[in-house]
Known about the structure:
The chain is α+β, with helices and mostly antiparallel strands. It contains ten helices and 18 strands. The protein has helices spanning 40-47, 52-59, 69-87, 102-108, 133-136, 173-177, 194-212, 258-263, 290-298, 313-316; strands spanning 22-27, 50-51, 65-66, 92-93, 99-101, 120-121, 126-128, 144-146, 152-158, 181-189, 216-220, 232-240, 245-256, 266-268, 276-277, 279-288, 306-307, 320-321. The strands form five sheets. An eight-stranded mixed beta sheet has the order 1-11-12-13-16-10-9-4. Strands 5-7-6 form a three-stranded antiparallel beta sheet.
Amino acid sequence: MLEVPNLPHPDVPVGPDESANVVVRSVGEPRRLDFPALPHWDLGPQLGIIDFERGVKVSGSRFYVLRGAGARLQRALITWMLDLHTREHGYVEVYPPAMVKRECLVGTGNLPKFGDNLYRDAEEDLWFVPTARGAGHQPLPRRVLEAERLPIRHVAYTPCFRREKMSAGATCAASARAPVRQGRAGEFVRPETSDAELAGLLDDAEDVCRRLGLAYRIVQMCTGDLSFVAAMKYDIEVWAPGSGEWLEVSSCSNFRDFQARRASIRYRPAPGARPELVHTLNGSGLALPRVLIAVLETYQRADGSVSVPEVLRPYVGADVIAAQDPT
C-alpha cells in the first residue's frame, strides 16, 4: 500500500502526460536584450564566477564551483528568500538535519517508492534528505495537534541529495549542468482550508519572482503528470533569455491527508473531539541554482557584466557583478 500514489484532487485537469498541463497565467514580459544574450554556461566563466571545469574535476559531470561574486550572489539569494518568508510571509525558519531516519521519508512518500534515487548510510540506516520536506516532518510524527496551533508554516534551506536521472537527450542546460538545491516551505493545515492555503503558498513563491523582476508563468499539472505524493500541483517557471527556455524553479503542492496518514499526524478539531488527519502542503520558495541562472541571464549587460537586482544589493554588497580574477 505504501507504493500506491495519492489520488488527484477533483479540480485537477485530466490528461495522460505533461502535454496536457495547463498554463494558468503568465506574469511579466520576458526581457528582450538589444545585444546577443549569453547563456549562463558562457556568461559565468567569462565573469569568473562559475567554474564548470573545476567542478567536473573534483566531483564529476553536472557539478560546478561558484567563485567570488557568484558564491556571494547565491548566498544572497538564500538569505534574502529566508528573510522574505520569515519576516513578511509568516513562516518559522527551521534548520533541519541533513540525514533522517527511514520513517521520516516513508511519511513524506519518498520511501519505499523512490529508494533507488536516494542516498543512504547503510550502517546507521540514515538517509540524506532529498528535499527540506524530508526533514520537515521530523518534529511531528505520531503527534496530535491542537486546532489553535494550525496552520503551522515552516521554511528551510537544505542541500538536496538525490540522483537526478536524465536521458542523454535532455535539453535543459540548467538541469543538465547543475545539481538542484532548494529552499522549501511546508505547512500543516486544517483540511477545510488546504485549497486556500495552496493558493497562498503559491503566491508566496510568486512573490520571490515578482521582487526579483523575473518573467514567469504558472503551470498546473494534469493527472498524468502529478507527482507520486501530490493531489494538486502547480509549477512556477521563469524565463532565462540566454538559454532561451523556461526553467522550473518551484513546485507547490497540496498533498491533502496523504502524508499525514503515512506519518500519523493528526489534530483535534475541538477540545475532547476525536483526532483527524491534517492536510500538508509543500512548495519551493525558490529552487537554486535555476533562480541564479535566471538572474544572471536576465540582468546581463552589453559589456558582459551583470546588474544585481535591487532587492539583493544589500546582501551582495554591490550593484554590478563584473569580470573577476579567474585564479
